[in-house]
Each structure stands twice: as C-alpha cells, then as structure tokens.
Specification:
The protein is of the alpha/beta class. The protein contains 7 helices and 11 strands. α5 runs parallel beside α6. The two termini are about 25 Å apart.
C-alpha cells in the first residue's frame, strides 16, 4: 500500500512510501497528485531522515531499562552503571528484555540506527528485530550517553529507491530540533513501518 507522510512545518519534503522503500520525495501536493490513491499520514512539525545514536552499547548494555511493572522497586528511568550490572548479575535473563525496552526508548527519540560494538546477544537481537541499522561510531562522541545526544546525528537524506527510514519531530524547523532535542519525536518509520507514534 502506498502511503504519503508529510509534516505541517515541512510539506516540501513529503515522502511517498511503497512497502519498505521510498517511492518519491517532494512537495506534498506533487506526491498527492502523483498517487491520489495513497493513504496520507499528516504529522505536526518537520520530517527528517532518522537519527543515528552513537551510544548503542552504553544505552542497551550498560543500562537497565525497568519494566513498568517494576516501577515500585526500580522506578521508571534507565538505571546506569554498577547498579545496572548488579541487576544483570542477579538475573542474566533480564538483559534481553532490558535491551528491547531500551530500543523502544530509542525509537521514541527518532533513532533508526545505532553505533558502537554490541557484545551481548540480547542487545544484538533487539536491534535486529527493530530493524535499526548499524552505523559507524564517530571518532569523538558528543558527550555522555543520551537518547538525545548533542549534536544530533542525522542519517543521509531520503532518496527514491532507498529505505523508508525517517522520523518526524514536533518542532518548527531544524534549528529548533537542535535546540530542543530528539525528545520532540512524534513518529519513527523503519522500512516503511510506523514503529513509534506519540500518543
């Protein structure tokens, strides 16, 4: 099924998706005229290529992401450092579930790719299942591990025939995205699938 994604603050960069691939990129009006039968998804903000998070190992293997049912004991925020490692040592089976929840947090920040060497099978499987691409880690990292690192690393632009992999952020322009960060994400698409949508 053909789908047009366009964001209100960047209608000139709408994307026509055919399955897992980009069929066309251009102004919304042009794509709607080209494929009037396409389903339309309208979003607030701007549509951009998705983000590469360079902190794959730190976020997916170095932190414990509590299950919501564990909120009374662990809270709801990721647990870093030695405390996370103690949790994993107590119950190694938690590694895979934690990594899956970590990937969900990444998707909620417009992440479509990760970098860094993942050593644990649980994290590798979580990344593969989600369809995240593995990218090259920058020579210098932008600061402490974060789901919204600064500066943000955008993947290359969308092209016809390329993978339908992008994100939408509820900001008026790229300058605001840089200033406010990836927590403004309202939608993430990987291989044509809507893998995250803000409620």
């Amino acid at each position: 099924m053909l789908t047009i994604h366009y964001a209100e603050a960047s209608p000139e960069t709408a994307v026509l998706v055919d399955g897992a691939l980009v069929a066309a990129v251009g102004p919304y009006e042009d794509l709607a005229a080209l494929s009037p039968e396409a389903r339309v998804r309208q979003w607030p903000g701007i549509l951009t290529p998705g983000l590469l998070n360079p902190y794959g190992p730190e976020l997916l293997e170095g932190m414990y992401h509590p299950d919501p049912r564990e909120a009374a004991g662990f809270g709801t925020e990721p647990i870093p450092g030695e405390r996370a490692q103690r949790i994993f040592r107590m119950d190694p089976s938690r590694r895979g579930a934690s990594a899956r929840r970590g990937v969900q947090r990444m998707l909620a920040h417009g992440t479509v790719g990760v970098a860094g060497e993942l050593r644990g099978q649980g994290a590798v499987d979580a990344v593969r299942r989600a369809g995240l691409v593995i990218g090259r880690r920058p020579d210098t990292l932008p600061g402490p591990p974060s789901f919204s690192p600064a500066p943000l690393v955008l993947l290359p632009g969308l092209v016809p025939g390329g993978p339908a992999r992008f994100a939408v952020f509820d900001v008026p322009d790229r300058a605001a995205l840089v200033r406010l960060g990836a927590s403004t994400c309202v939608a993430t698409v990987i291989d044509g699938r809507l893998v995250y949508r803000a409620r």
